[in-house]
Amino acid sequence: MGRAVRAHLAPALYPKTAASAARGSLLLGILCREALDIHDTTPYNLRMFLESLTIGMLATNCYVVAADKRASAVVIDPAGETKKIVSRLHRAELECVGILCTHGHVDHVAGAGPLSGAVGAPVYIHEAEAGALASPRTRLLGLAGGVMATRPDQVIYMDDGDCIEVGDIILEVLHTPGHTPGGVSFYTPGYLFCGDLIFQGSIGRTDLRGGSLQGLMRAVREKVWDMPDDTRILPGHGPETTLGEERRHNPFLQGLGSSRSRRL
Ligand SMILES: [Zn+2]
Ligand SMILES: [Zn+2]
After folding, report:
1. How far apart, in whole angstroms, are the C-alpha atoms of residue 208 and residue 206?
2. In this predicted model, what pLDDT tens digit does every residue of 51-66 receive, in sequence order?
3. What CATH number has the domain bearing residue 46?
4. Cα(189) to centroid of ligand 1, in Å?
5. What is the number of the ligand closest to the CA of 61?
6. Residue 83's closest CA among 62, 104, 105, 59?
7. CA distance 109 to 177
8. Is the pTM value of this prediction over 0.85?
9. Does residue 261 sit within a domain?
10. How many domains does the chain have?
11. 91 CA distance to ligand 2 middle (Å)
12. d(Cα 29, Cα 18) in Å, to the nearest integer?
């Protein structure tokens, strides 16, 4: 059974393990209706909207994925600029119920603690990356970028196969290491939020601590490569692209060949 179908049938989205708090009913009901900037329809004809905010010195793409006005929302990779993110949430009358981190680099997690404190939502991150949320390195580099990184009160570990349900949208957690050991991507049919795994015409660095080019290529081949061509790749930096475009033109991925299928 294809991944998309499996995700769609997932009963509800609960993480497998909890770090400090709420193991419970996390329910993100994301979804999509009137959007701030982007207004879409998923392959399942579910209304979806999301907004991309460019944040911090490294121009990180922070995504707000939300439901209707006055509905639940999640924020992916808050690099900082908490006021800016909160203001966007308020503008659409969204309630942030989860903060999702693709990996633990400072340009993706520095704002997680502050945003969690501001909106009262837990932070979701792979266990292998959680130590970076408020490590001395993150605090130091965060300060250099004007962000006071703090440890969130609630941290929930997520791992491959977990599903995060926000309204009618289910985000499946894919463990996609290589850039970092605990890097994850979030997939819902038509959309892949992949952090620093794949960029337009490039891939994430693998020469940093814990990185592995072989691991990254394996993750792309095993977790991403069979997705449909029109899957929108929403990366941690730079413009969005599609899997089809990267299949054809990304020089780093040419060795992966064609996908085994184009299901869904
Ligand atoms: Zn990174
Ligand atoms: Zn990054």
Report:
1. 6
2. 899 998 899 999 999 7
3. 3.60.15.10
4. 24
5. 2
6. 62
7. 17
8. no
9. no
10. 1
11. 26
12. 19
